Structures are given as structure tokens and as C-alpha cells.
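Help needed: design a sequence for this.
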């Protein structure tokens, strides 16, 4: 082989090497931008279908050629919305006088920010981004203009121009000062959907509207939240039944010993006797068809009994017996509720299947049988043929009867302990905010605190302390710094609470650097 041939071979090898490297880079880029379902960032697949719906919509846009593979990947991973499209949308809103140019410009930094998430056992849930500067004020954008802008944004999301939480972040600004207590039910439902993209992704708008309507009706009718706790004479329960139903021991009969399999705590799997564990205390006993029959309500009710016991010095026990032939399903279903229940709530699985303890004569066709026991004797019996019970005030009426106190006295014992999810939300909102209004600085700050409380990062007392410190920069910085040092909040969350103020953050950084 002569010199020319050698040179030609060398050049060919170099060229092939370059081509191979380029191909590898291209392959790597394509692979890196592949939209993979298993790389979902959101709710766990077993929790709901929101991310599945989002994946199907984005991949369809890519397959139909409406957006590029890169755009689809950025939407799926919530990396970046199409900024040029966003500018165009905001300019259209300006042209139609829905926004001023200054307002549109103030919104643009939201699209350069990275997403933040709150994690819990159900997945990673996005939080609307917050502006470091130029936050919107209450009433700055009219309700009509806000609604028009929302329609533009959700259309942009459907086209693939914007990812879901960029829509929520803009709407979070436009809803500054919104008061759900004073707004119409329909407006509240739209507000919830605007700030939570998961609602639209799962097609749950009608359900959210229905829930808002039910909650408003409950608050007005039953006095949950700000009004007094509703307590009803237990005799009214029997009168409300179409016909008399007998299940379990009746008033005056004994609450006999029986054995169940404990499904909670370190002693899970061991046999226990709820009547023995009660040890002579007043005893509220639930016999239910499945472990999620009463849901979170049981945890709230147990907390109320705890408050009653502490304030009255009359001891109470509470136990739940799941009567089912499918033990595995019962334990699996209960796992969802276990962490929500206080430790002193006894939950056991009947060793006699759906019939329950033989000596109790339960009707296994009923949803639940509830009995109240004093000194080993049944005082009240409530049967449930369906699932229509929500913080049943008759139970509290029976508790008052057993204790020999009137309803006003029992309310004092319960104090501010919520008895159901709606009351818990109302109590949390009262703890976090100005009782007069959600507008202004307190309202904005409360909206930043609420996700931290809901996800267990802060307790209500810590949130209340932060809110009390609002207006006192030194005190607020101190308390935020303490939470940051204790790793209860992240750097990003601390900066958000301090409103992105450079002076405040500088002070915070200095305190972190001190030994």
C-alpha cells in the first residue's frame, strides 16, 4: 500500500469516526427527550389517573405533529413552556384590554422559574410558582378579565403551548385576594380548578362544583366550621328510620367479650379484646362492613372524644371492628387510613368474618352497627343501612347522654376540635388567617402557608406563629430561619415565605452560616 492509499484509508477512518460520534450524539439527544410514562412527576399511578390523562394528551400532540418531540418532552417533565407562544397570548390579552402591558410583563418571570413540588405518600404534587417581585394585589384584575384570560391559558395548555402549572401560576396571581367564603359556589369551583390543574386533567369540574355546593350547604345548615357544633338527641336517629332494624346488643344488654385480630401498630396480627382494652371506660364501638366505611371521620371523632375526656375527666375508649370475609382486602384498604387515625383508636379484624362476633347478633347486610357502652351495658344502638353519614351529630348526642351533661357543656368539652374533614379545613383556615377577610398581605401569606400545613411540613401552631410574625420583619426572619435550620422547610420555601426580599434573604443566609 503506497502513501496515498494509506492517507486515503486514514481519512476514511476519521470520517467514519466523526459520523459515528455524531450519530451517537443524535441518538443520545433523541433518547434523552423520549417521553416515558414511567418518568411521570405527579401523583402515583395507584392514586389517580391525572398523569395518565396528561401523558396521553401530550403524546397525541407529538404523534399528530402539532408539537415537536422536544416540546412534548418539556411539557411532560414541566421544564419549559413555549415562551414565544406565551408572549403572544399575553399580548392578545393586552390588546383586548384584559391586562395592561405592565401586568403582562410582570407575569413573564413566572415562565423562567423552575417547578417546586411537595411530596407525600401519594406522589409529588406541584405548587403554583410565586413572583419574587411585582406580586398582584387584590382586585387588580376584574373577575370578567380573569375568566377571559383563563380561557386563553387552558386553550394554550390544550394546544401544547404551556404546561399545566404555568397556567396555575398565572391564575394564582390573578386570583390575589379572592375570598371563597364570599364568592358564589360556581366562582369557588372555577377558582379551585384554576389553581389545581389536576381537576381539569381528570375531568372533575362537575364533581368539584358539587363538592363546593355541598360544603356551602353543610356550613350553613349544620354549623360546621365557624358556627357551633351540631348535636342531636340520639332518639331522633331511630325516629328517622323507615322501619325498626335490630342488629347487635340493644339498650340494657351486656357488651360481651370477643376477640379480633389487631391491624394497627407494633402488635398488628395479635388477638385482642376491645371490651377488655376499654378497661371500664365509656366505650364507642363501630362494627363496619369494610375498613373504609366511615373513612377519615372516625379519626376526627376519636380526637373529639380525646378532647372530651381531657376536659371532663370522664374516660372514653373507641374501637372499630371490620366484619368481612376478605381479610386481605380489609388490611390493604385500611392502610390508606392508618396514618390518618390517632394512635388510641383501636381497629381490629373480626375472626368470624362478615357475621362478626356470634354473641353480638349483628346483621351482616348492614353497612354498620354502632353501639355506645357504659359500665359494660349498651346504652345506645345505631344501625346504618347505607353510607349516608357525615359527622353524625347523633353520636355526640349519645355521648352527652352517657355522661349526663347537656349539649352546650359537651360543646365546651369539645372546644375547637373538628369532627369531620369540612370542619378540619375550616379550623385550619381560621388558624391560618384573618377572620375578617382573605384579602391583603395576610391572605397572600396564608396561601403560601396552606400547602405546607396540608402536607404536614408545618403544624397549625407553627403556621399561626409565622402569621403572627407577619409585619415584624425581624421576628418573621427569625422564625423562618428556625424552621429552615430544623429542615422543616426548604431554601426555596423559606425565600417564598420571605417574599423574595433580598435584604431578608441575606439576613437568612447569614444566620444559616453561623455555627
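Sure. Designed sequence:
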Amino acid at each position: 500500500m503506497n502513501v496515498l492509499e494509506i492517507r486515503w484509508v486514514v481519512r476514511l477512518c476519521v470520517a467514519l469516526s466523526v459520523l459515528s460520534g455524531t450519530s451517537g450524539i443524535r441518538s443520545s439527544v433523541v433518547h434523552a427527550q423520549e417521553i416515558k410514562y414511567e418518568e411521570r412527576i405527579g401523583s402515583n399511578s395507584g392514586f389517580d389517573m391525572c398523569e395518565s390523562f396528561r401523558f396521553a394528551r401530550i403524546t397525541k400532540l407529538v404523534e399528530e405533529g402539532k408539537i415537536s418531540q422536544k416540546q412534548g418532552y418539556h411539557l411532560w417533565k414541566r421544564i419549559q413552556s413555549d415562551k414565544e407562544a406565551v408572549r403572544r397570548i399575553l399580548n392578545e390579552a393586552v390588546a383586548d384590554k384584559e391586562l395592561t402591558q405592565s401586568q403582562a410583563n410582570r407575569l413573564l418571570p413566572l415562565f423562567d422559574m423552575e417547578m417546586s413540588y411537595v411530596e407525600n405518600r401519594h406522589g409529588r404534587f406541584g405548587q403554583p410558582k410565586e413572583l419574587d417581585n411585582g406580586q398582584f394585589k387584590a382586585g387588580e384584575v376584574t373577575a370578567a378579565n380573569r375568566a377571559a384570560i383563563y380561557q386563553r391559558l387552558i386553550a394554550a395548555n390544550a394546544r401544547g403551548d404551556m404546561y399545566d402549572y404555568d397556567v396555575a401560576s398565572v391564575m394564582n396571581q390573578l386570583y390575589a385576594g379572592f375570598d371563597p367564603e364570599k364568592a358564589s359556589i360556581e366562582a369557588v369551583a372555577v377558582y379551585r380548578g384554576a389553581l389545581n390543574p389536576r381537576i381539569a386533567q381528570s375531568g372533575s369540574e362537575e364533581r368539584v362544583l358539587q363538592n363546593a355546593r355541598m360544603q356551602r350547604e353543610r356550613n350553613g345548615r349544620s354549623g360546621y366550621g365557624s358556627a357551633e357544633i351540631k348535636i342531636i338527641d340520639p332518639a331522633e336517629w331511630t325516629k328517622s328510620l323507615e322501619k325498626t332494624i335490630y342488629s347487635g346488643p340493644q339498650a340494657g344488654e351486656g357488651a360481651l367479650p370477643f376477640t379480633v385480630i389487631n391491624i394497627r401498630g407494633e402488635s398488628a396480627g395479635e388477638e385482642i379484646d376491645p371490651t377488655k382494652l376499654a378497661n371500664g371506660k365509656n366505650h364507642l364501638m363501630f362494627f363496619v362492613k369494610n375498613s373504609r366505611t366511615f373513612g377519615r371521620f372516625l379519626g376526627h371523632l376519636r380526637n373529639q372524644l380525646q378532647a372530651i375526656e381531657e376536659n371532663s375527666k370522664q374516660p372514653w375508649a373507641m374501637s372499630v371492628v371490620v366484619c368481612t370475609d376478605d381479610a386481605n382486602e380489609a388490611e390493604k384498604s385500611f392502610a390508606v387510613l392508618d396514618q390518618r387515625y390517632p394512635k388510641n383508636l383501636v381497629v381490629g379484624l373480626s375472626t368470624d368474618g362478615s357475621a362478626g362476633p356470634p354473641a353480638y347478633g349483628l346483621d351482616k347486610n348492614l353497612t354498620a352497627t354502632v353501639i355506645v357502652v357504659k359500665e359494660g351495658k349498651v346504652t345506645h344502638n345505631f344501625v346504618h343501612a347505607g353510607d349516608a353519614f357525615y359527622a353524625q351529630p347523633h353520636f355526640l348526642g349519645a355521648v352527652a347522654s352517657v355522661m349526663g351533661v347537656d349539649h352546650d357543656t359537651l360543646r365546651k368539652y369539645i372546644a375547637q376540635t373538628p369532627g369531620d374533614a369540612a370542619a378540619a379545613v375550616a379550623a385550619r383556615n381560621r388558624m391560618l388567617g384573618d377572620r375578617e377577610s382573605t384579602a391583603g398581605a395576610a391572605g397572600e401569606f396564608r396561601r403560601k402557608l396552606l400547602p405546607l400545613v396540608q402536607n404536614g411540613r408545618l403544624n397549625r401552631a407553627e403556621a399561626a406563629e409565622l402569621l403572627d410574625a407577619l409585619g415584624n420583619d425581624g421576628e418573621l426572619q427569625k422564625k423562618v430561619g428556625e424552621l429552615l435550620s430544623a429542615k422543616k422547610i426548604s431554601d426555596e420555601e423559606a425565600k417564598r415565605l420571605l417574599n423574595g426580599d433580598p435584604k431578608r434573604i441575606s439576613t437568612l443566609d447569614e444566620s444559616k452560616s453561623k455555627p
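The first strand starts at residue 116 and ends at 120.
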